[in-house]
Write a structure and sequence with these properties.
mainly alpha, 2 domains
Length: about 270
Protein backbone atom coordinates (compact mmCIF):
# COMPACT_ATOMS: atom_id res chain seq x y z
CA UNK A 1 0.00 0.00 0.00
CA UNK A 2 1.34 3.41 -0.94
CA UNK A 3 2.24 5.71 1.89
CA UNK A 4 -0.19 8.63 2.37
CA UNK A 5 0.96 11.93 1.02
CA UNK A 6 1.86 14.51 3.66
CA UNK A 7 -0.75 17.20 4.09
CA UNK A 8 0.16 20.63 2.77
CA UNK A 9 1.18 23.17 5.45
CA UNK A 10 -1.54 25.51 6.61
CA UNK A 11 -1.54 29.01 5.16
CA UNK A 12 -0.91 31.76 7.71
CA UNK A 13 -2.66 35.12 7.82
CA UNK A 14 0.54 36.91 6.74
CA UNK A 15 0.94 34.59 3.76
CA UNK A 16 -2.69 35.15 2.80
CA UNK A 17 -2.25 38.92 2.89
CA UNK A 18 0.96 38.70 0.86
CA UNK A 19 -0.54 36.44 -1.82
CA UNK A 20 -4.35 36.73 -1.73
CA UNK A 21 -6.14 34.08 -3.86
CA UNK A 22 -8.08 36.63 -5.91
CA UNK A 23 -8.84 34.24 -8.80
CA UNK A 24 -10.24 31.69 -6.38
CA UNK A 25 -12.32 34.36 -4.67
CA UNK A 26 -13.64 35.59 -8.02
CA UNK A 27 -14.67 32.10 -9.08
CA UNK A 28 -15.95 30.73 -5.77
CA UNK A 29 -18.16 33.63 -4.72
CA UNK A 30 -21.83 32.55 -4.57
CA UNK A 31 -23.08 35.08 -7.15
CA UNK A 32 -20.65 33.92 -9.80
CA UNK A 33 -21.25 30.24 -9.06
CA UNK A 34 -25.03 30.59 -9.17
CA UNK A 35 -24.96 32.43 -12.51
CA UNK A 36 -22.38 30.10 -14.06
CA UNK A 37 -23.96 26.83 -12.94
CA UNK A 38 -27.41 28.18 -13.77
CA UNK A 39 -26.33 28.94 -17.33
CA UNK A 40 -24.81 25.47 -17.73
CA UNK A 41 -27.96 23.88 -16.33
CA UNK A 42 -30.11 25.90 -18.72
CA UNK A 43 -27.90 24.79 -21.60
CA UNK A 44 -28.29 21.15 -20.59
CA UNK A 45 -32.06 21.39 -20.12
CA UNK A 46 -32.69 23.16 -23.43
CA UNK A 47 -30.02 21.18 -25.29
CA UNK A 48 -28.67 24.51 -26.49
CA UNK A 49 -24.84 24.54 -26.53
CA UNK A 50 -24.78 28.25 -27.36
CA UNK A 51 -25.79 29.06 -23.78
CA UNK A 52 -22.92 26.97 -22.42
CA UNK A 53 -20.40 28.53 -24.80
CA UNK A 54 -21.61 32.01 -23.86
CA UNK A 55 -21.41 31.14 -20.15
CA UNK A 56 -17.87 29.81 -20.51
CA UNK A 57 -16.82 32.93 -22.43
CA UNK A 58 -18.37 35.24 -19.86
CA UNK A 59 -16.73 33.27 -17.04
CA UNK A 60 -13.33 33.50 -18.74
CA UNK A 61 -13.70 37.28 -19.07
CA UNK A 62 -14.80 37.55 -15.45
CA UNK A 63 -11.82 35.55 -14.18
CA UNK A 64 -9.48 37.56 -16.42
CA UNK A 65 -10.57 41.02 -15.25
CA UNK A 66 -12.33 40.68 -11.85
CA UNK A 67 -9.28 39.69 -9.74
CA UNK A 68 -7.37 42.80 -10.85
CA UNK A 69 -10.26 45.26 -10.55
CA UNK A 70 -9.41 48.07 -8.13
CA UNK A 71 -13.07 48.74 -7.47
CA UNK A 72 -13.82 45.13 -6.62
CA UNK A 73 -10.64 44.99 -4.54
CA UNK A 74 -11.79 47.95 -2.48
CA UNK A 75 -15.43 46.91 -2.19
CA UNK A 76 -15.24 43.12 -2.05
CA UNK A 77 -11.87 41.37 -2.11
CA UNK A 78 -10.11 43.34 0.67
CA UNK A 79 -13.03 42.84 3.06
CA UNK A 80 -13.25 39.15 2.26
CA UNK A 81 -9.51 38.65 2.72
CA UNK A 82 -9.52 40.52 6.04
CA UNK A 83 -12.32 38.26 7.32
CA UNK A 84 -10.34 35.21 6.25
CA UNK A 85 -7.17 36.60 7.87
CA UNK A 86 -9.04 37.37 11.09
CA UNK A 87 -10.27 33.77 11.24
CA UNK A 88 -6.76 32.45 10.60
CA UNK A 89 -5.25 34.76 13.23
CA UNK A 90 -7.83 33.60 15.74
CA UNK A 91 -6.92 29.96 15.12
CA UNK A 92 -3.19 30.77 15.25
CA UNK A 93 -3.70 32.58 18.57
CA UNK A 94 -5.64 29.70 20.12
CA UNK A 95 -2.96 27.23 18.97
CA UNK A 96 -0.26 29.33 20.66
CA UNK A 97 -2.26 29.87 23.84
CA UNK A 98 -2.74 26.11 24.17
CA UNK A 99 1.04 25.86 24.76
CA UNK A 100 1.10 28.12 27.84
CA UNK A 101 -0.53 27.84 31.25
CA UNK A 102 -3.91 29.43 32.07
CA UNK A 103 -2.36 32.33 34.00
CA UNK A 104 -0.27 33.31 30.97
CA UNK A 105 -3.30 32.88 28.70
CA UNK A 106 -5.22 35.35 30.85
CA UNK A 107 -2.38 37.90 30.61
CA UNK A 108 -2.30 37.58 26.81
CA UNK A 109 -6.07 38.03 26.50
CA UNK A 110 -5.94 41.05 28.81
CA UNK A 111 -3.21 42.64 26.66
CA UNK A 112 -5.22 42.00 23.47
CA UNK A 113 -8.26 43.62 25.09
CA UNK A 114 -6.10 46.62 26.05
CA UNK A 115 -4.88 46.94 22.45
CA UNK A 116 -8.50 46.92 21.20
CA UNK A 117 -9.33 49.57 23.80
CA UNK A 118 -6.43 51.75 22.60
CA UNK A 119 -7.60 51.39 18.98
CA UNK A 120 -11.13 52.44 19.93
CA UNK A 121 -9.99 55.41 22.02
CA UNK A 122 -7.64 56.54 19.25
CA UNK A 123 -10.48 56.47 16.74
CA UNK A 124 -12.50 58.72 19.04
CA UNK A 125 -9.69 61.28 19.45
CA UNK A 126 -10.29 64.09 16.90
CA UNK A 127 -6.62 65.15 17.07
CA UNK A 128 -5.48 61.93 15.40
CA UNK A 129 -5.41 61.78 11.61
CA UNK A 130 -6.07 58.39 10.05
CA UNK A 131 -2.77 57.95 8.20
CA UNK A 132 -0.54 58.85 11.14
CA UNK A 133 -2.54 56.81 13.61
CA UNK A 134 -2.54 53.75 11.35
CA UNK A 135 1.26 53.45 11.68
CA UNK A 136 1.07 53.50 15.46
CA UNK A 137 -1.71 50.89 15.58
CA UNK A 138 0.43 48.61 13.40
CA UNK A 139 3.19 48.95 15.99
CA UNK A 140 0.83 48.09 18.84
CA UNK A 141 -0.34 44.98 16.98
CA UNK A 142 3.27 43.97 16.36
CA UNK A 143 4.00 44.37 20.07
CA UNK A 144 1.09 42.10 20.96
CA UNK A 145 2.50 39.46 18.60
CA UNK A 146 5.96 39.85 20.14
CA UNK A 147 4.45 39.58 23.63
CA UNK A 148 2.84 36.26 22.73
CA UNK A 149 6.06 34.91 21.20
CA UNK A 150 8.08 35.91 24.27
CA UNK A 151 5.53 34.34 26.60
CA UNK A 152 5.74 31.11 24.59
CA UNK A 153 9.54 31.16 24.69
CA UNK A 154 9.59 31.78 28.45
CA UNK A 155 7.18 28.89 29.01
CA UNK A 156 9.29 26.60 26.84
CA UNK A 157 12.50 27.53 28.66
CA UNK A 158 10.86 27.17 32.07
CA UNK A 159 9.64 23.69 31.16
CA UNK A 160 13.17 22.83 30.08
CA UNK A 161 14.65 24.07 33.36
CA UNK A 162 12.00 22.14 35.25
CA UNK A 163 13.17 18.93 33.59
CA UNK A 164 16.75 19.38 34.85
CA UNK A 165 18.03 18.09 38.19
CA UNK A 166 20.46 20.83 39.20
CA UNK A 167 21.57 18.98 42.31
CA UNK A 168 22.53 15.99 40.20
CA UNK A 169 24.55 18.21 37.87
CA UNK A 170 26.38 19.72 40.85
CA UNK A 171 27.09 16.26 42.29
CA UNK A 172 28.52 15.24 38.92
CA UNK A 173 30.74 18.32 38.83
CA UNK A 174 32.09 17.60 42.29
CA UNK A 175 32.69 13.95 41.40
CA UNK A 176 34.74 14.79 38.31
CA UNK A 177 36.67 17.47 40.13
CA UNK A 178 37.66 14.90 42.74
CA UNK A 179 38.63 12.37 40.08
CA UNK A 180 40.68 15.00 38.24
CA UNK A 181 42.64 15.82 41.39
CA UNK A 182 43.27 12.15 42.15
CA UNK A 183 44.28 11.22 38.59
CA UNK A 184 47.38 13.39 38.25
CA UNK A 185 49.66 10.39 37.60
CA UNK A 186 47.28 8.79 35.07
CA UNK A 187 47.20 11.04 32.00
CA UNK A 188 44.35 9.19 30.28
CA UNK A 189 42.13 9.25 33.37
CA UNK A 190 42.97 12.92 33.98
CA UNK A 191 42.11 13.82 30.39
CA UNK A 192 38.78 12.00 30.62
CA UNK A 193 37.92 13.68 33.92
CA UNK A 194 38.86 17.08 32.49
CA UNK A 195 36.60 16.61 29.45
CA UNK A 196 33.64 15.53 31.58
CA UNK A 197 34.16 18.49 33.87
CA UNK A 198 34.26 20.88 30.91
CA UNK A 199 30.96 19.52 29.57
CA UNK A 200 29.26 19.85 32.95
CA UNK A 201 30.51 23.42 33.31
CA UNK A 202 29.20 24.22 29.83
CA UNK A 203 25.79 22.85 30.83
CA UNK A 204 25.78 25.04 33.92
CA UNK A 205 26.67 28.06 31.79
CA UNK A 206 23.82 27.33 29.40
CA UNK A 207 21.39 27.02 32.28
CA UNK A 208 22.59 30.37 33.64
CA UNK A 209 22.05 32.02 30.25
CA UNK A 210 18.56 30.55 29.97
CA UNK A 211 17.72 31.91 33.39
CA UNK A 212 19.10 35.31 32.40
CA UNK A 213 16.91 35.31 29.28
CA UNK A 214 13.80 34.44 31.26
CA UNK A 215 14.50 37.23 33.75
CA UNK A 216 14.95 39.85 31.00
CA UNK A 217 12.02 38.59 28.91
CA UNK A 218 9.67 38.54 31.91
CA UNK A 219 10.67 42.12 32.65
CA UNK A 220 9.98 43.09 29.05
CA UNK A 221 6.55 41.44 29.20
CA UNK A 222 5.70 43.48 32.30
CA UNK A 223 6.95 46.64 30.58
CA UNK A 224 4.71 46.06 27.55
CA UNK A 225 1.70 45.50 29.80
CA UNK A 226 2.34 48.59 31.90
CA UNK A 227 3.00 50.78 28.84
CA UNK A 228 -0.23 49.66 27.18
CA UNK A 229 -2.16 50.53 30.34
CA UNK A 230 -0.44 53.95 30.44
CA UNK A 231 -1.22 54.65 26.76
CA UNK A 232 -4.87 53.71 27.33
CA UNK A 233 -4.96 56.24 30.20
CA UNK A 234 -3.22 58.97 28.15
CA UNK A 235 -4.65 58.57 24.67
CA UNK A 236 -7.85 60.51 25.29
CA UNK A 237 -5.85 63.69 25.97
CA UNK A 238 -3.05 63.18 23.43
CA UNK A 239 -2.72 65.89 20.81
CA UNK A 240 -0.77 63.79 18.28
CA UNK A 241 0.04 60.13 17.58
CA UNK A 242 3.71 61.11 17.98
CA UNK A 243 3.13 61.26 21.73
CA UNK A 244 2.44 57.53 21.62
CA UNK A 245 5.06 56.75 18.98
CA UNK A 246 8.06 57.22 21.26
CA UNK A 247 6.68 54.80 23.84
CA UNK A 248 5.93 52.14 21.23
CA UNK A 249 9.30 52.57 19.50
CA UNK A 250 11.07 52.13 22.82
CA UNK A 251 9.15 48.91 23.45
CA UNK A 252 9.96 47.61 19.96
CA UNK A 253 13.67 48.25 20.54
CA UNK A 254 13.53 46.28 23.76
CA UNK A 255 11.65 43.47 22.03
CA UNK A 256 14.31 43.20 19.33
CA UNK A 257 17.02 42.88 21.98
CA UNK A 258 15.08 40.08 23.69
CA UNK A 259 14.50 38.36 20.35
CA UNK A 260 18.24 38.40 19.66
CA UNK A 261 18.87 36.88 23.07
CA UNK A 262 16.29 34.17 22.34
CA UNK A 263 18.02 33.27 19.07
CA UNK A 264 21.33 32.92 20.89
CA UNK A 265 19.73 30.88 23.68
CA UNK A 266 18.08 28.54 21.17
CA UNK A 267 21.48 28.08 19.55
CA UNK A 268 22.94 27.11 22.91
CA UNK A 269 20.14 24.62 23.53
CA UNK A 270 20.72 23.07 20.11
Amino acid sequence: MAAPKPSSPAVTANQLRARPPLVKLAFANPYNLSLFTGALAASALTLNPVIAVAALGAEALWLLHAPGSRTLKRLVWDKKIERMCAALESRELEAKLALIDPREQKRVRTLIAEQVKIDQLAAQNPSFSGDLMRDELVKSKELVGAYIDMALTCSRYERYLGSIDLEEIERGRQTWETRLRSAKEDAREADLAKKNLEIINRRKEKIREIRDYIKVARGQLDLIENTFHLIADQIVTMQSPKEMSGQLDSLLSGVEAVRSAAIETDRLLA
